[in-house]
From TrEMBL:
GO terms for biological process: lactate metabolic process. InterPro entries: 4Fe4S_Fe-S-bd, FTHF_cligase-like_sf, Helical_ferredxn, LUD_dom, LutB/LldF, LutB_C, NagB/RpiA_transferase-like. Residues 393-483 form the Lactate utilization protein B C-terminal domain. It comes from Streptomyces dangxiongensis. Residues 476-492 have a biased composition (Basic and acidic residues). This is Lactate utilization protein. The keyword Cell wall biogenesis/degradation does not apply. One of its GO terms (molecular function) is 4 iron, 4 sulfur cluster binding. Residues 73-285 form the LUD domain. Keywords: 4Fe-4S, Electron transport, Iron, Iron-sulfur, Metal-binding, Repeat, Transport. Residues 450-492 are annotated as: Disordered. Pfam families: Fer4_8 (PF13183), LUD_dom (PF02589), LutB_C (PF11870). The lineage of its organism: Bacteria, Bacillati, Actinomycetota, Actinomycetes, Kitasatosporales.
Amino acid sequence: MSGTFVGMPAFPEAAHRAVRDPVLRANLRHATHTIRAKRATAVGELSDWVELREAGRRIKDHTLRHLDRYLLRLEESVTAAGGTVHWAADAAEANRIVTRLVKETGESEVVKVKSMATQEIGLNEALEAEGIRAYETDLAELIVQLGRDRPSHILVPAIHRNRGEIRDVFVREMGAWGRPAPAGLTDTPAELAEAARLHLREKFLRAKVGVSGANFMVAETGTLVVVESEGNGRMCLTLPETLISVVGIEKVVPTWRDLEVFLQTLPRSSTAERMNPYTSMWTGTTDGDGPRTFHLVLLDNGRTDTLADRVGRQALACIRCSACLNVCPVYERAGGHAYGSVYPGPIGAILSPQLRGTADEIDASLPFASSLCGACYEVCPVAIDIPEVLVHLRERVVEGGPAVRQGNRVVLKPARGHAAERAAMRAARWAFARPGTLRTGQRLAARTRRLHPRTLPGPGRAWSGTRDLPAVPAEPFRDWWQRTRGGKDGAE
């Protein structure tokens, strides 16, 4: 993945700083509460939402289990339609392919549709290093780019900015990137949008190369799909002479009919709309209509390794709706930058550590960036059990290594360190396997409860320093059951 976030602190430290920023918290609270309230209304309009959600889950699960077959079918379909398919094992290879393709056109600038895959690989930085300037055309991405900032949300990358901050960025930076902001620009949404439209229009009309991602790829026909709300995507996908799309291999769906499900669930879950204002689809090239040359770069970059993990692979079903971010109490308070990845929030907490591995301090901390409340699972339109994957990844971090293949099985690589955690788990396993010992320990804990400390010693101090230790009841449950029900102790 990209080095965009290298140098950032691990989640606990970054989140600690973020929660002390009152402006950031106010911006996030207002935006997330507004979006999720609208989403709830839009979803409530459909009587078959539960069935649509289950259908989406099954389509994604089936596709991931047969991904090799559908990717080969996709390649055949795109090639037959006049496109060229390139396979990129990692970010470096993808950047080399795109850079080479742009250079072959003789151009030194490209216009871009909002694409998390290109952010993941750091494409803008790679192009700039080769003398090629990439212009973001999505309004929120434009704000992030002009402000020399980082995206903090999947759907609304500039969600951490308020209108006054955006106005200041436009006035200060637009002139260095092209047409300057209009004189006397205010912070009203209409004026800000008009300033962006005027700034981008000249780029759309001038650019010869467009770069995009895709929300879906249809293996059956070789069709790519981009859904968006502003029309910038339609401009980037139709006006340039050359179109280069960088797409993660997990974005494929088997048939055209499968889109029926996702084109209902995605807009309602993301923008709370019944349908996307702009749904652009293209299949290869067509004489006299759209780009003359089309390249599809299929990106792996850790996805195959993630696919090998039967629990963790759920993350690859994500359709990037951002619903999980808008209901997450941790994201609402910490913001997207604290996650140190282009994929923030609950989905980022399970996707980034799998794509990048858990050796880095940032990625090792992400599975713990959750209260496990389950709100993310409840709103996910493809029913990704994010809490289950978080617990699974926490185990991997504690054990100390990534999942590795041994024959036909995927196991956790043994690790050094974390001796205290392993010792505690072994002790618990020993006690739970001996009912008599467990019963005696429970009774002893109940009788000595007045002597128990309010904080834990040693390494446990960090945990109990911000939490109250649970009170030990006056008698164990076993004794209560036997006394009140007259039943036999289940331990005997």
